[in-house]
Amino acid sequence: MKAFGGPENLESATLPDPVAGPGEVLLRVRACALNHLDLWIRAGLPSARIQLPFVLGCDVAGEIAALGADVEGLPVGGRYAVHPGRPCGRCEACRDGREPDCPDYGMIGAYRGLPGGYAELLVVPAECLLPIPEGMSFVEAAAVPLTFLTAWHMIVTLAGLTPGETLLVVGAGAGVSAAAIQIAKLLGARVIATSTAREKLDRARALGADDVVHHPPEDLVRAGRRLTGGRMADAVFEHVGPAVIGEALKCLRRSGRLVTCGATSGPVAEIDLRYVFDRQLRIIGAKMGNLAEMRRVWALVAAGRLKPVVDRTFPLAEARVAHERLAGRGQFGKVVLTL
Ligand SMILES: [Zn+2]
In angstroms, what is the span from residue 146 Cα to ligand 1's centroid? Predict the structure, then answer.
C-alpha cells in the first residue's frame, strides 16, 4: 500500500526480504485472507500507527522457509497458519491474559504498523504458529484465524452463551458470522441468522442456523418475537453497526447481551437508551482474543468440528479486485488471496 485511500493505492512492489530473528520463523506465504480491517487500514486508521509503504494482511497461511536462532523442533516446509495478535507481553493486561486490552496491541497487517501477509515472505514468532492438518488447504487455513478467534472471544468468553440459549447472528454473509453460527451450534445454542440477501440465508442454514430472517425487508423485531414465541434472543452477535444495531437491541430479552466487533455500515449509531437501562441490556465490545483462545478454536477447526468458509480466491496481483469484492458485500465467507 503506497498511500492511504482507495484500492488504487495497492500495487506490486519489491521490498527487502525479512529475516527471522531469535524465536521467529520465516514463512513463505501461500494464502492470505482479507478482513474488513484491511479496508479500514487502507482508508487510514490513525490508531494503527502505520508507516508507508505498508504490507496489509492479517490472516496468513504458509510454509516455513527458515528458522531463526534458537528455534528448534519445527520442520522447514511445515504448513502453518498464524495467530495475528502481537501484544506487548509485559503490561498488566498481557500478564492477566487480556491481550486485546494491551495498550500497545499489535497485529500483523494492521496495528502497530506490523507488516502482513500480502507478501511472499513474512516473519512470525514461532509461538504464533498453528499447524495445518492434512487435508486442509492453505486457503482454508488462512480463512480461519481472525474471524474464528473473534467469534469465539465474543460468544464464549464475553457473551458466555450457554446450551439452549438463542443467539441472533446479524449479517450472516460475513466471515465472522459464518464462524459465529458454527460456534454457537457447537455450544448447543439455537441460532437465528439474518441477511439482506436471500441466497445467503440458505447458506446460513447449511452452516447450522435454525431459523433465518430476510432483514431488510422483513421487520427484524417482529421476526425475532415470532421465532422466539415472544421470549426474544438471549444474545445478539453484531458487526454491522448503525444499519441494524438499534433494531438488534430490541430483539434482546431483559438482561440480554449484545456483543459487537465491527461497524461495516458506519462508525456512529443511534440507539434508544430507554431500552438499554429499562431492560438492563449489556452492550459488550470485542476485539480479537488471546493466544489461548486462538489455540482452543484452532483445535476445533483442525478436528473438523468447525469449518472455514471461503467465498472466493484471487491471486495476490489482483488484491485491488479482491478489496472491491469485500467492499461490495456480495461475499459469503472469506475472500482469500493466493500466492
Ligand atoms: Zn501488553
Answer: 19
| Torsion angle defined by CA atoms of residues 325, 326, 331 and 335, in that order, rounded to the nearest 10 degrees | 90
The residue whose grid cell reads 436471500 is 198
Q: How far is ligand 1, taken at its centre, from the CA of residue 105, in Å?
A: 6
Say how many Å lie between the CA of residue 69 and the centre of ligand 1: 24
pLDDT score for 40: 92
Please give the single-letter amino acid code of residue 82: V
Residue 264 CA to residue 83 CA, distance in Å, equals 23
User: Is the preceding omega at residue 216 within 30 degrees of 0, hence cis?
Assistant: yes
87 Cα–ligand 1 center, Å: 5
- What value does the mean pLDDT of the chain take? 95
- Centre of ligand 1 from the C-alpha of residue 258, in Å: 26
141 pLDDT above the threshold of 90: yes
One-letter amino acid of 338: T
Please tell me the distance between residue 106's alpha carbon and the centre of ligand 1 in angstroms. 9
Confidence of residue 264 (pLDDT cuts 50, 70, 90): confident
* Phi, psi angle pair for 93, to nearest 5°: -60, -45
pLDDT digits (tens, 9 = 90+) for 273-302: 999 999 999 999 999 999 999 999 999 999
254 CB burial (10 A radius; 0-12, 13-18, 19+)? exposed
Q: How confident is the model at residue 174 (pLDDT cuts 50, 70, 90)?
A: confident
